[in-house]
Amino acid sequence: MVSRITAIVLLLLVLPLRAGFAETAGSGGLPGGASSLSETYESWQVGCQTKDGAKHCSLSQQQVAKNGQRLLLVELSPAEDGGLAGTLVLPFGLLLGRGVAAQVDDRPVGEPLTFRTCLPVGCLVPLMLGKDVVARLRAGTTLRLTVASSDTGHPVAFLVPLKGFAAAHDRTLALVR
């Protein structure tokens, strides 16, 4: 069941924002002619897949509770404008109307992010990060995502370590070239 859920999440992450993602076609395949690649850089993973001559690469981080429940998933791919595009998946039980406040090392990153929808795998937030935000993520230590609990309205913070983010970003960029 978990692998089916993971496949659904990945499909949902790739399809809606596909136009902005780094995808290349032709002879620029993965190292060694592989059809997929997965690497870990501290807290971040880099993944690439090729299908029908097109290559899709992303960097991601998933956090899972001790009971196996996913707490969050963030997946980002290089966008054509030099930024990053992707999706954030958060659990149920949140006040969706308040959105997600993002901070890098306690400095706010723009306006709260808006939820798109909730599906059986969690609640989805589309991400479009400009070059300036990417530079802050590369130099930062922690991305704080703050939401409100639907039960109490109290803030709930998800801490995303940025250790390895710069290396994972560099590797993703190298793989899409």
Write the layout of secondary structure elements.
Layout: H1 2-14, E1 23-25, E2 36-41, E3 44-51, E4 54-64, E5 70-78, E6 84-90, E7 101-104, E8 107-108, E9 117-119, E10 122-129, H2 131-139, E11 142-148, E12 155-161, H3 165-176
Antiparallel strand pairs: 1-4, 2-3, 3-4, 4-5, 5-6, 6-10, 7-8, 7-11, 9-10, 11-12
The main β sheet shows up as:
8 strands, antiparallel
User: Total strand count, please?
Assistant: 12
Q: How many domains make up the coordinates? A: 1
The percent of residues in helical segments reads 10-25%
Shape: globular
Distance between the terminal alpha carbons, to the nearest Å? 35 Å
Structural class: alpha+beta
CATH class: Mainly Beta
Strand % is 35-45%
What Rg do the Cα atoms give? 16 Å
* Low-pLDDT windows of residues: 1-27
Q: What average pLDDT do the residues reach? A: 86
Task: For this entry, give a set of tags.
177 residues; alpha+beta; Immunoglobulin-like; eight-stranded antiparallel β-sheet; four-stranded antiparallel β-sheet; 3 helices; 12 strands; 19% helix; disordered N terminus
Q: TL;DR?
A:
With 177 residues, the protein is α+β, with helices and mostly antiparallel strands.
Structure, described:
This is Invasion protein IalB, involved in pathogenesis. Residues 1-21 form the signal peptide. This protein has helices at residues 2-14, 131-139, 165-176, and strands at 23-25, 36-41, 44-51, 54-64, 70-78, 84-90, 101-104, 107-108, 117-119, 122-129, 142-148, 155-161. Strands 1, 2, 3, 4, 5, 6, 9 and 10 form an 8-stranded antiparallel sheet that branches. A 4-stranded antiparallel sheet has the order 8-7-11-12, with no helix packed on it. The longest helix has 13 residues, at 2-14. It has one domain (36-176): Invasion associated locus B (IalB) protein (Immunoglobulin-like, Sandwich), CATH 2.60.40. The protein starts with a helix and ends with a helix. Helices cover 19% and strands 42% of the residues. The radius of gyration is 16 Å and the shape is globular. The protein is an alpha+beta fold. Strand 7 and strand 8 form a beta hairpin.
